[in-house]
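Thread: quick sanity check before group meeting

JM: Hey all, I'm pulling together slides for Thursday and realized we never actually wrote out the predicted structure for the chain we discussed last week. Dropping the sequence here so it's in one place. If anyone has concerns about the input, flag it before I start.
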Amino acid sequence: MKTLILMRELYQEAFQAIGSWVLRNLYRILFWFCFACYLVVLYAFVYRVATGFAFD
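JM (edit): ok, ran it. Output follows.
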């Protein structure tokens, strides 16, 4: 739990340091897009492992 709080604080501090409103929102959108892509890849991997896919 402490790690999640630390990551949240780092996330907030990183975006507060960016001065431009447009750039800050662009980076937020990019972050959430990359995070969603990562979750899709993680889901696909877990699904393949759970269904017995042979990784040859």
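AS: nice. Helices lie at 2-16, 21-50. The chain has a mean pLDDT of 89.
JM: adding both to the slides.
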